Amino acid sequence: WKPDTTELMGVYLIAKRDWDECAKLGEPAVKPLAEALDRQQEYILELWDSFGGSLMPSPPLWDENHEILEAIVSTLGKTGAAGAVNPLINTFRNYSELTHELHEYAVAALENIGESATGKLVELLSARESTARGCAARVLSELGWKPESDRLRTDFLLAEEKWDELVIMGE
Question: What are the pLDDT digits (tens) for 5-26?
Fold first, then answer.
């Protein structure tokens, strides 16, 4: 048996936890990966059941180390798809209480996607969540982005917590 659509192939590969093959699908993998990111264990277990449970030795249980969550975030970045930007940015917003490693995976994933992530990352500089702002600033800095206005420069420096530069800017 083979899935008859690319998106269904993505679902199948997520259920198998075959992250490398899933990433190779590119944009068609983004929707099922984003769904898995949003619904976590519930979604993964549904996938396992939908494929009859015979494809894998046991259902993939969510563990305390968030390995599957980190794998999903990493795979989104490896797709290189522009459609992965929003789900990755939502990682900063929705999982601010989780491990530092998860944020590192999201930062690396956004860096991998590159310049197509810039617009959404600039918007994130003014987010309420300090973790989200800081991660956005870090990715933008890695991408070589430069603020085009004083307002964006202020948001960027606030996100990076560069207080001395803000004082100099305000003089």
Answer: 888 898 888 888 899 999 999 9
User: Is there a contact between 84 and 108 (Cβ–Cβ < 8 Å)?
Assistant: no
Q: Are 48 and 60 in contact (CB under 8 A)?
A: yes
The identity of residue 142, as a single letter, is: E
**CB 13 within 8 Å of CB 29:** yes
Taking each helix axis as running N to C, give the angle between helix 100-113 and helix 67-79, from 0 to 180 degrees, rounded to the nearest 10. Answer: 10
Q: Which of 3, 4, 6, 2 is nearest to 79 (CA)?
A: 6
The tally of CA atoms less than 13 A away on the side-chain side of residue 46 is: 9
Size of the chain, expressed as the number of residues it contains? 171
What phi, psi does 109 have (nearest 5°)? -65, -45
| pTM for the model | 0.78
Tokens of 129: 């969540």
For 126-166, give the secondary structure using H, E and C: CCCCHHHHHHHHHHHHHCCCCCCCHHHHHHHHHHHCCHHHH
The answer to whether the CB of 62 falls within 8 A of the CB of 41 is yes
Residue 52 CB coordination number (10 Å): 9
